Amino acid sequence: MDLEALRNKKGFICDMDGVIYHGNRIIPHVKEFVEWLENNGKNYLFLTNSPERSPRELAQKLKRMGLSVGEEHFYTSALATASFLKSQCEGGSVYVIGEPGLTYALYEAGFSMNDVNPDYVVFGETRSLSYEKIERAVRLVMNGAKLIGTNSDLTGPSEGGIVPACRALISPIEMTTGKQAYFVGKPNPLMMRHALKRLGCNREEAAIIGDRMDTDIIAGIESELDTVLVLSGVTSAEGIAEFAYRPRYVIRDVGVIAGIED
Question: pLDDT tens digits for 211-233?
């Protein structure tokens, strides 16, 4: 496998969970990879479908694990959702079901909170989902609010195992109203275009690194970026065969890009 073309890329879009860390533990060789990015003047963005934390919180999380990365290097599905909605309905109002990272992104994009007649019901992963919130969201969507999901993941990883993610949690609202949510995060190419703009790169100059075939790799393929699957997360080498598409590169972990052997 010739990695020279990959190493010559100007920009790198990196998934986080399974690529950079597992839970609260940095994956081996990640520090060396980040040093390689910095020392070689690469543009890079840590991209996550999780809408729960702000870039500042993500930077602080990595710092607690011993990795210092500026908050300008983070981009979340919450930020992508806020940017998309601003382009659709600037100055609009939203009813949010989600964590503070999502609410903050929408505030920053100029949206007001509205639980009576919002333009949008915006849904992101949350541990505080209640029947009352689902019931209110259903009423608002039935009354004309558009239903938006931050990401289309059915499941996500946690230290205790697999947990339900946005698409699973939003399904009661979809099923009750008969309305399909529009999902902004990966694999939607919209989020990838936002990321490329942030990097200042075109698609030929960038690569996406991820551990999931069903979000990261398909997002890269549909956005015409070179794709790198790392085997440090969800997808195993054997699991690749279950999909009708393949990544351009398959590597042990990001340390391989920095030239670190076993």
Answer: 999 999 999 999 999 999 999 98
Give pLDDT, residue 262: 66
CATH class of 4-49+186-256: alpha beta
* CATH 3.40.50.1000 residue ranges for the chain: 4-49+186-256, 90-183
What is the Cα–Cα distance from 24 to 31, expressed in whole angstroms? Answer: 15
One-character DSSP codes across 60-78: HHHHHTT----GGGEEEHH
Q: Does domain 90-183 have CATH number 3.40.50.1000?
A: yes
**Hey, which residues does 164 pair with through a beta bridge?**
155
Write down the catalytic residue from 2, 17, 115, 226. Answer: 17
Q: List CB contacts of 134: < 8 A, sequence separation 6 or more.
A: 172, 173, 176
Among residues 2, 15, 115, 119, the one annotated as catalytic is: 15
Active site residue 214: no
Respond yes or no: is residue 15 known to be catalytic.
yes
Task: Provide the pairing of β-strand 21-22 with 25-26.
Answer: antiparallel
